[in-house]
């Protein structure tokens, strides 16, 4: 039986550096190639030595597919393709292809220029790597080679995020990347058709959470911002340039418009302005509502949100500032945080997940005194007086969403990645219980093997199909199984089902006909002709409704069965009956009349034996007959 | 397998393919050349048009003064323009399972097919085709409804009377089948039946047939279609281009190994080189402006206009036209310009690269930003106060029978300083101009048709090697006016199967195999024995 193997190199029972190897139908596919935010050493990137100890990866992989532009899904790409070495095709959607190199360059700058690391990929490597990228369109079936095909589906989550269906023959795997089953302010919900993959590989970030409605969270967020502004405070929202930032901007923009608020909203410049431009140009990837109204009003052209200048941080009065990066670990958001931390009127809202070790993580855990990098050792600690709020706006499917996707795709097996082991365990139980399918959650480097059961494609001759269909009456009855007769020819890796005549012709074989004969002895003093006549009249009375002919050449024919009579050489009273028939289905109805029919049903392959014994039985009703049967081929 | 041909227009096809018990309509083009028989619909009262004499037969026996008007020796119907629909009697339209659309020009008859006919199927089109098609339909409805004409004219359609009319009215066919424009409500209902598809997406129809659109290189989202089962393949080629303009290049290799290739939508201007025409367009435009005249470009609101604007973007500085205002007037001008910028996936490689920067793929964004190009929904409102001359105006409809272009014809037609430059190949420019005669303005004919020419198509067919080719009969003989040009027709071995309106062709197909699947359990037994 064929097998599909899945091995996570990253994101196995973990969040970060997503990288999953799939072997299916003799093809090897790598899904995502991410980095880990929590590490600065070798563990930052997936362990490609698992694939090969020495040399390039090109020979071992048929293709690499990147699901979306977040660095934990694409951050190791230039390292993998340019430093380890991979020249095969890399697939990603157009928005991902556009945005991914910018984030990679940003990542490189922070690592090399700010942290001073060496032996890291260069700008040129990012460019060279992107040259290997082949853009994917949604729902387009891309033929990687003659056997391997991939198809992308909309995943929500961030601009350009895709799920991907990988198919070889009739075996298939779906990889979700990160996805979101509820539409938000700027993106739509993930969708997939009932593609019934052998394995569905799903993220499980929020495996145990069923999140309250988005509306409530939005209302909460707006209320907190509004209250802070009302009392003259400043609100800092650390974000990553692309993704949640746009969603929250749309939220605030519409709120400001509705409430007629005057306090300024700023967006830290640089990447973000450019980011909004990407959203404008890739508007077909946003949600229905934005797409519908973009001509009249492009939601990504903000009226109330202005570019930020670092001097504005000291301006008096209330304001809202979106600043990068999102975990307060460096850059502008950290600078502003330091300035505003001392005032309890101010507020910081963390809209997403923060990795351990970052300031964001510390203040979310209630730490109120912070040591700052760059300050003198044992210098004064930073006193955090401002309000700290956490609101989960990251767009991952929750437990309900994951179950919903399983219902959509109807996989035969489930495999969880991109989540914490404990939470996965819980979800695994739930999935196995609700859908009665196996659910796997391999750790990094651990291989899950799933046996598949692909059906075998066969080409059937149209003549044969029509002929067999016609045998069952004008319309086939879909409720009843039917047997059909044909010859299966296996030739050059393909299977053909044809009529036996055609098969013989194609294979250049002569047709042999089987004829069964049977001798029955009986005692009868009459002449041969009279005996034959007596048999004829006897059969006529026993087998009503059958064509029985007495031919002048001294034979009796019952349907297609020939009966001849001759006298034994030694004794003229001993008559030898010769019965002869060819192997034909048409004889079966004859049997139905007989007391032997149950035996025929019980033992259908022995039909010819049964037929001969049937005849013997019929003739045995003749007085004093001895039987002697034989089957010969003629 | 049968092909029912419902349209005789080679570039606005409408065919129905019956294949393995599915009924598939290929395009539903609307033949709008019928509107040339009607008087223009002016936006403001036109004393000239209203004073045209009514038509009375020479012997005075037929008097159709109210319906027909005479202008410069030609007779026009004075009523709301009507279109020539695809044939609706040849087969029951309610039996159609799916409609495959190849580009936005070839879907304009959709509401006539999907509404009020009992149609319950699905329409497949790409996203740009749907969006721009919707805009063009909206524009058409708007053009008609903006100047309602209560009067309907039916007496002239009487067979006995039509026979007595002067040409070309006399020779118009199926005039009883001509229909007025649909309503916006019908457009919305028709388009709600569209399901979006992407290039190379495989769509299963009832498990019997698989259809898949391929890039055809002609316009945004334009596609050819592959219709295939496991053993048979039909390619439908409609409106394809091998020139490098804005759309994604044509996918040729996927057309290989077809049993039948249905070929429609070749260039209507086989002798006019698009590049040469573009050059002529620019030089005539510059010449007129320099002489202080205005330039009128009657055009569709999407398609070649993007290329014209791009060409002008490069041209205006070098030709010293930096201060000349360019106007684009259409109820959908803004939408069309905006939509063109958001279909990165459907654009040629160069334009895609721009989006990655991120910059708008078409330079008309910059023309708008720098105020060189201005767009207005109509001549009313802001335009009338901001309008400066001499200027260049792009506006529709290219038939010159309705839309804002009618107003500019009336306004500028009397001065020989002005020029009208025809760029759309769909209408004969002489016929289009007929109801405006006599005219003083200069007329330049630069039809730009980027679709395949005969040379390109023979090369393509040699490469993809279909067993049989089916095409409109017009392609099997040289054009009437150039009967000696045997290079302007398809010469193939075996010869192509020609069709005309109302033809029903039996396609030469021998189906021999069908795909079935054996359960793995069963296959194991087979393998063992």
UniProtKB/TrEMBL annotation, chain A:
Record Gene3D superfamilies: 3.40.50.10890, Ribonuclease Z/Hydroxyacylglutathione hydrolase-like
Where does the protein end up?
Cytoplasm; Nucleus
Q: Which residues form the Metallo-beta-lactamase domain?
A: 16-229
Task: Give the record's GO CC terms.
Answer: cytoplasm; nucleus
- Recall the GO molecular function terms of this protein's record: hydrolase activity; metal ion binding; RNA endonuclease activity
Q: Which GO terms describe its biological process?
A: snRNA processing
* Keywords from the named record: Cytoplasm, Hydrolase, Metal-binding, Nucleus, Zinc
Cofactor (UniProt): Zn(2+)
Q: Does the keyword Secreted apply?
A: no
Q: Where is this chain primarily localised?
A: cytoplasm
Describe the location of the Beta-Casp domain by residue ranges. 245-363
Query: Which PANTHER family does its entry note?
Result: CLEAVAGE AND POLYADENYLATION SPECIFICITY FACTOR FAMILY MEMBER (PTHR11203), INTEGRATOR COMPLEX SUBUNIT 11 (PTHR11203:SF37)
Q: What is this protein called?
A: Integrator complex subunit 11
Provide the species name: Astatotilapia calliptera
UniProtKB/TrEMBL annotation, chain B:
Taxonomy, superkingdom: Eukaryota
Pfam families given in the database record? Beta-Casp (PF10996), Lactamase_B_6 (PF16661)
Q: Name one GO biological process term.
A: snRNA 3'-end processing
One GO cellular component term, please give it: integrator complex
**Can you tell me where the transmembrane regions are?**
none
Family annotation (Gene3D superfamilies) = 3.40.50.10890, Ribonuclease Z/Hydroxyacylglutathione hydrolase-like
Q: Which family does it belong to?
A: Belongs to the metallo-beta-lactamase superfamily. RNA-metabolizing metallo-beta-lactamase-like family. INTS9 subfamily.
PANTHER family recorded for this chain? INTEGRATOR COMPLEX SUBUNIT 9
* Protein name in UniProt: Integrator complex subunit 9
Recorded source organism is: Astatotilapia calliptera
Q: Which gene encodes it?
A: INTS9
């Amino acid at each position: 039986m064929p097998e599909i193997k899945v091995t996570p190199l990253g994101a196995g029972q973990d969040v970060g550096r997503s990288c999953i190897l799939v072997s299916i139908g003799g093809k090897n596919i790598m899904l995502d190639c991410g980095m880990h935010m929590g590490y600065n050493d070798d563990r930052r990137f997936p362990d490609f030595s698992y694939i090969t100890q020495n040399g390039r990866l090109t020979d071992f992989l048929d293709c690499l597919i990147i699901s979306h532009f977040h660095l934990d899904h694409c951050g190791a790409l230039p390292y993998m393709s340019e430093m380890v070495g991979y020249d095969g095709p890399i697939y990603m959607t157009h928005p991902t292809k556009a945005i991914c190199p910018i984030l990679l360059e940003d990542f490189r700058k922070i690592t090399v220029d700010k942290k001073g690391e060496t032996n890291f990929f260069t700008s040129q490597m990012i460019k060279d790597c992107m040259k290997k990228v082949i853009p994917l369109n949604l729902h387009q079936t891309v033929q990687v080679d003659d056997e391997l095909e991939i198809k992308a589906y909309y995943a929500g989550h961030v601009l350009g995020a895709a799920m991907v269906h990988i198919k070889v023959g009739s075996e298939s795997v779906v990889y979700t990347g990160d996805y979101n089953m509820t539409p938000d302010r700027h993106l739509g919900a993930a969708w997939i058709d009932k593609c019934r993959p052998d394995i569905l590989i799903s993220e499980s970030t929020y495996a145990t959470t069923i999140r309250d409605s988005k509306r409530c969270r939005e209302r909460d967020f707006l209320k907190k911002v509004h209250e802070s502004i009302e009392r003259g405070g400043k609100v800092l929202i650390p974000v990553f340039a692309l993704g949640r930032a746009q969603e929250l901007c749309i939220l605030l923009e519409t709120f400001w418009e509705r409430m007629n608020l005057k306090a300024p909203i700023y967006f830290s410049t640089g990447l973000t302005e450019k980011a909004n431009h990407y959203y404008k140009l890739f508007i077909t990837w946003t949600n229905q509502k934005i797409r519908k109204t973009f001509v009249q009003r492009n939601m990504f052209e903000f009226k109330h949100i202005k570019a930020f200048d670092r001097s504005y941080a000291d301006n008096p009065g209330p304001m809202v500032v979106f600043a990068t990066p999102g975990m307060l670990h460096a850059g502008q958001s950290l600078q502003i945080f330091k300035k505003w931390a001392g005032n309890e009127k101010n507020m910081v809202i963390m809209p997403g997940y923060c990795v351990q070790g970052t300031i964001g993580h510390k203040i979310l855990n209630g730490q109120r005194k912070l040591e700052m990098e760059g300050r003198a050792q044992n210098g004064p600690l930073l006193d955090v007086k401002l309000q700290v709020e956490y609101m989960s706006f990251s767009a991952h499917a929750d437990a309900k969403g994951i179950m919903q996707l399983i219902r959509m795709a109807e996989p035969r097996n489930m495999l969880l990645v991109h989540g914490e082991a404990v939470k996965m365990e819980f979800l695994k139980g739930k999935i196995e219980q609700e859908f009665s399918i196996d659910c796997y959650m391999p750790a990094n480097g651990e291989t899950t093997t799933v046996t598949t059961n692909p059906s075998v494609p066969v080409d059937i001759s149209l003549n044969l199909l029509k002929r067999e269909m016609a045998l069952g009456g004008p319309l086939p009855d879909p409720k009843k199984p039917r047997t059909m007769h044909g010859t299966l020819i296996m030739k050059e890796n393909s299977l053909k089902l044809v009529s036996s005549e055609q098969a013989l012709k194609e294979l250049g074989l002569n047709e042999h006909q089987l004829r069964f004969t049977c001798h029955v002895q009986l005692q009868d003093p009459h002449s041969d002709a009279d005996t034959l006549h007596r048999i004829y009249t006897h059969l006529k009375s026993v087998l009503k409704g059958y064509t029985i002919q007495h031919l002048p050449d001294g034979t009796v024919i019952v349907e297609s069965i020939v009966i001849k009579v001759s006298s034994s050489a030694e004794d003229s009273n001993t008559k030898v009956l010769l019965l002869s028939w060819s192997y034909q289905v048409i004889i079966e109805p004859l049997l139905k009349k007989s007391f032997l029919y149950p035996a025929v049903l019980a033992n259908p392959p022995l039909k010819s034996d049964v037929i001969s014994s049937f005849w013997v039985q019929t003739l045995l009703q003749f007085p004093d007959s001895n039987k002697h049967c034989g089957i010969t081929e003629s | 397998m049968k092909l029912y041909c419902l349209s005789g227009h080679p570039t606005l096809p409408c065919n129905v393919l019956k294949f393995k018990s599915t009924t598939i309509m290929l395009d539903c083009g609307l033949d709008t050349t019928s509107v040339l028989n009607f008087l223009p619909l002016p936006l403001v009262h036109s004393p000239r048009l209203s004073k045209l004499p009514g038509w009375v037969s020479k012997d005075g026996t037929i008097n159709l003064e109210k319906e027909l008007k005479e202008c410069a020796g030609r007779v026009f119907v004075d009523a709301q323009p009507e279109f020539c629909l695809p044939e609706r009697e040849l087969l029951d339209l309610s039996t159609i399972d799916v409609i495959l659309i190849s580009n936005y020009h070839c879907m304009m008859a959709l509401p006539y097919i999907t509404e009020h006919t009992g149609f319950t199927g699905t329409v497949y089109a790409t996203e740009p085709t749907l969006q721009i098609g919707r805009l063009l339909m909206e524009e058409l409805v708007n053009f008609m409804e903006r100047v309602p004409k209560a009067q309907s004219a039916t007496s002239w359609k009487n067979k006995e009377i039509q026979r007595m009319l002067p040409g070309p009215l006399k020779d118009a066919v199926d005039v009883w089948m001509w229909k007025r424009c649909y309503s916006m409500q019908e457009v919305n209902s028709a388009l709600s039946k569209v399901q979006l598809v992407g290039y190379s997406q495989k769509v299963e129809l009832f498990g019997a047939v698989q259809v898949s659109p391929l890039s055809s290189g002609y316009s945004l989202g334009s596609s050819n279609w592959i219709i295939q089962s496991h053993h048979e393949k039909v390619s439908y080629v409609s409106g394809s281009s091998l020139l490098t303009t804005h759309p994604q290049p044509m996918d040729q290799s996927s057309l290989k190994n077809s049993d039948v290739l249905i070929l429609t939508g070749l260039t209507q201007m086989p002798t006019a080189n698009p590049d040469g025409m573009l050059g002529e367009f620019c030089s005539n435009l510059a010449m007129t402006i320099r002489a202080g005249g205005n330039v009128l470009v009657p055009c569709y609101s999407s398609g070649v206009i993007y290329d014209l604007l791009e060409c002008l973007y490069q041209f205006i500085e070098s030709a010293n036209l930096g201060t000349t205002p360019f106007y684009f007037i259409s109820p959908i001008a803004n939408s069309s310009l905006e939509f063109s910028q958001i279909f990165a996936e459907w654009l040629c490689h160069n334009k895609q690269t721009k989006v990655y920067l991120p910059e708008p793929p078409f330079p008309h964004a910059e023309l708008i930003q720098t105020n060189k190009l201005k767009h207005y929904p109509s001549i009313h409102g802001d335009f009338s106060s901001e309008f400066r001359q001499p200027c260049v105006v792009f506006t529709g409809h290219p038939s010159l029978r309705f839309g804002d272009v009618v107003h500019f014809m009336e306004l500028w037609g009397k001065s020989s300083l002005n020029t009208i430059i025809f760029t759309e190949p769909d209408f004969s420019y002489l016929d289009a101009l007929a109801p405006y005669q006599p005219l003083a303005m200069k007329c330049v004919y630069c039809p730009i048709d980027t679709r395949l020419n005969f040379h390109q198509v023979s090369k393509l067919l040699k490469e993809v090697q279909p067993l049989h080719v089916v095409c409109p009969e017009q392609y099997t003989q040289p054009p009437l006016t150039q009967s000696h040009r045997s290079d302007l027709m398809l010469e193939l071995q075996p010869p192509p199967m020609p069709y005309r309106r109302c033809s029903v062709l039996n396609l030469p197909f021998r189906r021999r195999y069908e795909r079935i699947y054996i359960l793995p359990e069963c296959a194991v037994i087979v393998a063992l024995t």
